[in-house]
Amino acid sequence: AWVERERQKAESYLAKLPHRAEIRQYLEKIQNYPRYSLPTLEAGRYFFTRNSGLQNQSVLYMSSTADGQGQVILDPNTLSKDGTVALTNYEVSPGAKYLAYSTAKAGSDWNEIRVLDLATKETLKDKIEWVKFSTIVWDREGQGFFYSRYPAPESGQSATIGGLNEGHTLYYHRLGQPQSADQVIFSNPDNPDLSVYGASSEDRRWLIVQISQPQNDNTALLVKDMTNPQGQFITLPNSFQARFDLVDVYKDRLFVRTDWQAPKGRVLSVKLTNNVITTPWEEVIPQSEEPLSQVSCVGGKLYANYLHDATSRIKEYTPEGEFIKDLQLPGLGTVSGFYGKNDAQTAYYAYTSFNTPAVIYAYDIASGKSTIWHQPQLNFDPQQIVTKQVFVPSSDGAKVPLFISYRRDVKLDGQVPTLLYGYGGFAIDMTPGFSTRAMTWMQMGGIYAQASLRGGAEYGEEWHRAGTKTKKQHTFDDFINCAQWLVDNKYTKPQRLAINGGSNGGLLVGACLNQRPDLFGAAVPQVGVMDMLRFQEFTIGRYWMGDYGDVKKPEEFATLYKISPYHNIKPGTKYPATLVTTADHDDRVYPAHSFKYAAQLQRLQAGPAPILIRIDSKAGHGAGKPIAKSLDETADILAFIAQALGFKDLRLPR
Known about the structure:
By secondary structure, the protein is α+β, with helices and mostly antiparallel strands. The chain is built from eleven helices and 38 strands.
């Protein structure tokens, strides 16, 4: 009943906003361009997703050529009338005979795996349920696959939406068999908090299991020779002493990216022979001054993605660690990918920036030249947008990167409505990237600012750790100082400054709103972690303890209590206009976080500004949300902020 009342109250307010329809229409215009995923190659066939522009879900294609055409293999838009069933993952079997794919309903993290015969286009009877946070790894013969899941929860919505998830287990499913017959490959009943993921070498000889623990994000890697039926898992050295991320196996050498004794990251390798580790770790690419965010192995080369002040730099190495060259990139932005097989002649990567949606490039390994594989046809002029980067001193002197973007014709007079976005957690890098929301805000005539806060990994693991547990206040200090810098340097003023963030960024917005309500004119915390004393009691919340801390430890409890958005709303305070957003199927950050926070903020609000909560239906934490729903939500957010900041003279192009 409370949810329904709040829905009606929010919709009643939002429906009256003068620019809501205009903003929604322009968002649709900006969004309406073809978008591709990076292609993958199996048995001479290319697999990729494509969205024509406004399709609720992207469609999976298969092509025998690299021209970006092809035939439809799976269209998730046909799986539901309202577009709320999303394709979340897929993996092609050896020889491209089968496609194993997972789908999620209504934004849930719970997935279901099915199998498609690529020749007949028929869906097999195989059906795998209660899958959550899983890879799909085919065996050598293409007769079955490995996947991860939790035990089926108890009946009832509370079990599936908010229930605690324990006992993540790696299974093997053989095609044609019922799920009840699936073989347990790895589990640890004595430690149900562990997360278990499967991977394999390209030739599928080696099965690799990555295990992570929630208390500190450290991992272990286990390896098994799948050609030896009697073989056992062997544990790679230094497990759980740091994070070890699999890069690939190339010529019986297993490569990892790790922060073990290297907080900015390095590449190590170990030789695998007959299921025996014959050498200790050998350093391939040493730690450098810039953090190493990603590594891939394509065409017998290693491609290392470094961050330079939160923008990508790509370096090419031999498997022995010899530096070959720096790759030329289109500009200061973010690169992802470098997909391809060990013997490939071409690697595929994507480049994006604040004014450029993802452009996909084909990189010729022999010549070192990049050519465009797909470039979006835009409905705006990217040259109209200016982006600059500044470095803001935080409370303790740390320099925080802040990107500032706006239209060239915007007059910087200290009055410009400004939207400041942040995240600051879980070693997630906030780098330049295209956003329909940000572009629309800039086209309206506003400034869009994005901060790279401590808690992320823009400068390596030390930068990440400086915004975790008892040091979490650093993240909020960084964000508040970025906001103050925008005011002090005459970009905007508090009454015209809005803050926004989602998930961990929702926590960020809530905490900063409590600490400096006078500094902001509007706030939008989305699907946020708002009760820092109980987050570990729902769904996968305990996996966040590595960043947030443990309420059972007195020192960490004290910090959690001090920063918790729900517990620090102060009576008698005039809070700015606030729009809380969540969704009824969010089984990652339980909606009760936002419910409690919004109710408390409404109860204690001493000022006239509206406090609303927008509760989406048949939606979850955000992944897989239909385009139509995303555009509706974004239009509501931007219209709400525009109203709160007194933004009346919109400049949206016709």
